Structures
1.
Amino acid sequence: MTTANTTTVYVPAPDGTPLATDLCLPDAPGPHPAVVIRTPYGRTAHRAELRGWAAHGFAALAQDVRGRHGSPGPWHPYRDHEESDGAATVAWVREQAWSGGPVVAVGSSYAAHCALVAALGPRGDGRPDAVIAAVPALGLADTAREPAGPERLRARAGWWAAHGDRSDSAPDALARALADDPRLLEHLPVARLADRLGRALPSWPGLWDDRPRGRIVRRASASRLPLLAVGGTHDPFAEDTVALWRGWGGAARLLLGPWGHRLTADRPAIAADRVNLGALYVRWARAALAGRLEPERRGVITLGGSGRWHGVRHGDAAPGPVESSTRTTTWPFDARTGLRLLHGAEFTADPARPVRSDDLAVPAGTTPADRCLLLSPPLPRPLDLAGPATARLHATADTPAADWAVRVTALDPAGRAEPLAFGIVRRADPPGEAVEITVPLGTLGRRLPAGTRLRTEIAGHHFPAHARNPHTGENPVTATRLAPSRRAVTARGSALHLTVVARRRYVEPVPEICR
């Protein structure tokens, strides 16, 4: 079957399963380097992308993974067959008459997982020569939970409703279910939530059983292949993208732009913020296959809102930047120039009325307070943020289990709110005991204009993005009983820490990534 210059072929997996694969060849005679995309989201959606690669001299392939769309078999997300099926596909490509040998594995989200496990597989013809991983969804546990434990409820419910236990996709399945039952995500226990989605999802409870995170990052240090890691400062998996880049053993490049998980901006972008990712991928792939990349870890982070990009470099062993172009600035909770407490030094985290993730508004006069709320004075001058942010809290909870969610919002001079940073950690401390809590808030890349104020909220929930902690010490996935938790935050010793640009190192993103 042929569509334009794209032909569908069937590549045998190690057990003989025929994997449906779209192939697009350049018009010029071969042999050609190749690009392989393995996806659960439908290979036909990549046909324009395949034609773009072919126009630049690459043989381009997009394949439905086992059990999805045109490929038969059972569909088991993130299982070991992705590595073996990927290796078989790369080896098959090398055997074709039109193949020149070199292969680049490319993918976004789940497809990035497929590209990475092929790149980290055994040495041989089944291992690609370079990998491009965009907004990587690294594994079952990595996508299901935050690094500190809280469950990513809404995103996983949406993904499983759309793609779980089925060969096709229904992207709006959760939206339709929520339209019928707006309180759907409040259902307890979380392990039985799928029963309310209107079809069988037998894999849903097992999603929460796979606890170890970071398997791919731990394997990454042994790789010597070139890597391009692409992420967005608004992508929930941004820290996994940065960790992959930092941990990679070969020549690694990081592009962290002002994007969400779809690699699109949440607001109209300044022209200089925009990057033609297709052209960048081609240029980087050529440099990687030709061995022209310098052997260090190099990257660029957006300064969203400014049209500028900040360059970062890491040595082979150094955990931080080689040159001190950034510094950490501290916003204490108890200083005139830091964050001023507005209310809620003592508050109640009640899972029956949780602080919501989908509403930036802060209700006035809530009794008892449902969060600790602080506000900074207006910035006297623009501030460039490029790097990790952290909140350190001195606090107590009267329950044996507690989540601590910190949300930082940028308020412009007119009071309009825009999300800036977020983090959530799970703790099990002795009830009533004062403890120090570190909440990582991700890697930021923003220019804040003069007059901006930072609003910081400390709460016990971030629902429905994250499952509610029941505060009983029970597993939040299987719990059916909820209890309120009384909290206290001590201003002294608590602070917000932001990484700011101390010495400007503005770069052009594409040349910096490709050298």
2.
Amino acid sequence: MVDAADGEEPGQAPPALGQLEQSLAMAAELRGMAEALVRASAWMGLVGWAVMLFQADGTHLFPCGMAGLGGRWQPPLRPLSTGDTWPVGQAALGQERAGCGTTGPYPLPAKAGAAAWMVLPLAKRQGVAVALRPGVTAFRSVEQAFLREAVNLLDRYLPGVERTGRTVEPAPRLRPRSAGVFRLDLPDERVECDEVFARQHALPGPGRYPLADILCRIPAQDLPRIQEILGELRERPGTFEVSYRLTLDNSGMRHLRAHCTSSRTEAGVVQDISGEVTDVTTEAQQIGEREALLREQLQRADRMISLAASAASASGTRELAAAACEALAVFGADALAIVEAHGGRTRVVTAAGYDREHRAVLDGLSLSARTPLTDALRNQQAVFAPSHRDLVSAYPHYAATLPRLRRHAWAAIPLPLADRTTPAVCMFSFNRAHAFQLSDQPLLIAGAALLGRALERCRSYDAEHERAVSLQRSLLPARLPEHPGLLLTASYRPAAPKAHAGGDWYDAFPLRDGRMALTIGDVEGHHTEAAALMGRLRTTLRAYAALIPDPATVLALTNNLLTAENDADPDHALLATCCLIALDPKTGRLDCATAAHPAPLIHTPDDTPVPHFPTGLPLGAFADTSYPAAGLTLPTGSKLLLYTDGFTDTPHTDPDHAREQLRQLLAATEPKVGAHALHEVATACLTPLRPHDDSALLLAHLTGA
């Protein structure tokens, strides 16, 4: 046998162990763990693994999980005694072994050939893990260090899986059973009992007691049913079993089970009930604990299903973080941040549950800093800090800052991303100390894996939304024209990332007869195609209006053009709404035509009612559609508000009510002018922090100046 090389040789550097930890945490059985070890060791060549665990006798090993080993390299499927001289037996007793040659770590066929191997003992004397690579090249020291780290992770998650091939036979045992004996005299309603029964029911000692002394200790919610049972026992003789509870002063709730027999006199009357009572409090508590654990597991599994659904449907990284924080609240986590490495420092991608100050603390940390977050990023391994004490134990420099920390436990878990050049970590924070159970860690790591897969999709979604919004903003007018006696101002608000970008637009431009054209519209859909069509419609309206200043004719010509495009490519057909106004700032004369768009809101200084504006069909629906026009003259000081349905057609809002709110807001801003009034209207109407649709406003104020 040739000993493993001590010196370092040039070769491939070991990868981070974060992916291995995630795989081990989510493995359901030992074979899955062995397969995860094989994948993690692939950078060293063809490395197989065998996990051999002690049998019940504690002196024999049995291969319980194998992967990557050909038939001739597998350990024999029989128990191996630790008293033998094989390296696996020596390692099982706590001694790490490594070698290379034709002699293997366990019995192998004579023609198996040479192989490098390393046997590492598992924690708590569970057994050994064997890594084996066919060939004559021993494991380098850097490879051995990697194998040790891999087995350390295996130790962490091994107790959470079912160990196939390892059985423990239940041993016979003797358990004392103490039963109290009683006799209940029904006519007198008195109980005669021995010392054990008296002790069970907190009575002074053996003797004869009123039945009421026992019933007074029955919980109030149980007493009606106990009375019913006593009534049934009076009516019919026989042997029965009754389970009941007592509330005791010092020991809390006691669970008892009575086996009793009722006897009848010659006249057919039940005279007494006798039997024995056994204390089953421990058994009841164990059943309750198992039921509570099962409910907790079901609740957590349900939350993981909820997280998977939320992650799959999340639109944008912000929505993803909020959904994950809500789904994982069952673990006690109240805040979550997804952080990536960028230029040697941390960069917060998104967060939920953190205020601006706390988020800023996580942003811009040097990756060389010693923190749970940076350690998880740098080493790509999960870091758990269950309490302030554990945090200071691992990171002593935090001792001085403990009073300022708002959270009390942390879990920083690497996210598995396709692009490994930019590692990312999800950090869960808890508002109280949290003991991470063996069942917690795999579920949190599984949750991080779901977030990692969803993060890349949400980033693409965010990028698409940003491109669409940028395109849309670039197609809107950079500045509005100026005209004596008319003040113009406009506002555009993009939709939330879930809705992408829309096709809302506004425009204002002078006509050749001195009037000012005001237009606002909305292209259906929320995508870059809608934004691109919006830009073409703006250009078309300007071109037709330069030749024909009548708003109704301009809409008719634009409709014919869009309808021809839709007919030529019906798979990509889009409709649009539009309101076009020609306004004379000198006289206040207004001519308006609309194509399925909300009519403008008008407020006059004397609050004169405004006539109804008729509307026509959407643009692009039918060719040769005519559009009705309406006209009126506005006094100086009037305000004209053009808007899109992002302000009125919102979830859980009545459009008529929203329109009336717009009208009242416009009237309330009467003393103000321009951008101040518009900002007040837009802010009051866009109350949701994440509007479902984009929106545009165009405000014209006849100042008379």
3.
Amino acid sequence: MSFPAQPLAEALSQPLAQSPVQPLAQNLVQSVDWLAIAPPTITAVVGLVVLVTDLFVKDARTSLLGWISVAGLAASALMLLPLVNDGRSTFCLTGEPGTCSYTADTFTLAIQFLVLGGALLTALLSVTAVKDADRGLPEGEYWFLLLSSAAGAALLPASRDLATLIVALEVASLPAFALVGLRQGDRRSSEAALKFFLSSVTATAVGLMGISFVYATTGTLHLTQVADRIQYVDGQLTTLAQTGVVLTLVGFAFKTAAVPFHFWVPDTYVGAPLPIAAYLSVVGKAVGFSGLILVTVVALPSYADVWGPALAVLAALTMTVGNVGALRQRATRAYSAVRLLAWSSVGQAGYLLVPIAAAAYSDDPERSIGSTVAYALMYGAVNLGAFAVAALVGRRRSLNRVADYRGLYAANPLTALLLAFFLLCLAGLPPGIIGLFAKVTVFSAAVDAGLGWLAVVMTVNVVIALYYYLQWTALLFRSPEDAAVGHRVPAPLTAALAVTAVLAVALSGAPQLILRFTDTGLF
């Protein structure tokens, strides 16, 4: 075999500067905006510091690890302040500065505030829980896993490509499996971790299959490019693209605990350490819903006719099943207080799905998504407050039944008043004004999008929820069955209760602090 000599000679004589290798190398060079990525980075670094410190700290001083974790999460949350109204992006494609893998816009900062604030309150609850466990929870591993999960959860809302999105989702989820099953010798904890693990792994597998189909049909992982290219998929690949969209939605529906993918929630919350149940109820939901928003509204707006009706049906089913499940809890059943909060969180997930579904029909999808963000911020503050009270009561009443809260006002008036306020916020009744405003915002998003039937379903479910929230609230002020004994509130629990109470009261007095997030900056 012979080759033409002249073309080969011409190729060898070309200057090195014209080689295609050099532009490729330039494309691989990235400048990193360290300020933009500071919140998740600091959280991850502090997690490593805690893990290494655990090797050298004596057993008598392991409580230091908890306070290092609290300080690290507080520092991460404070690093959000320089990013407000800045709109930073990093890890962008060369020549396409608008196509980036990490963006710190208003949506990102709001969810990161929820995630890091929720993780910080969880850490405060955990300081007491780990101490009460009396070595039942290995401290070094506990704090490292919590910080690792929080770092992944903080990364996820900033992700603007599907690869980063999935990596962040799994970094948030994998440590959570271990946290749920970390209690040594506890059968319920192991069973809860197994159910959580199997459901989450199934969700990830289905979601990854869908994302691979989307990538195969569009040739890109960046969300904005997926949005542009998936509209013009070759006819032979249309079925593959549609299948990818459906599988991706199913995967994220698992992560949000939407019905019928909710079955793991009650048992997982009961089997997990109580601070981790609180973490999953708030931060876990923030992870699932922010990922769902990015995939649907940002990456797949052209398939709104597919995911819009699907999410509307899921919202109706989720809020109904969740509220009916909470209504059926018996006050004398073991762990009924935690189970009620678990089923309530499923019902609240239904409300959070409503504005996302409405975004498919709305002329202003950004405002609809903002309603979900505002509701999530309200829910996070008051639900963590309710779990803080449950953690306090659970220190004396290990079975944590709803009946154990009878006469709480006689034993600890301030704690009872706080729990009543948190429950009224969740119900959307005065003086829990922020809960009322958040529900009205979600309701108006459905009405404005023409989803009147969904607004009716939501109204019925709000009435159902009123019954069990008010029933629990009334129980707090009834005469106790035995002599009232005051609760000694440890300092970390006091701090968690104080922070959640201040947030709930402040937001009820000035709901515009949350409602301003209806402008998310996603578009």
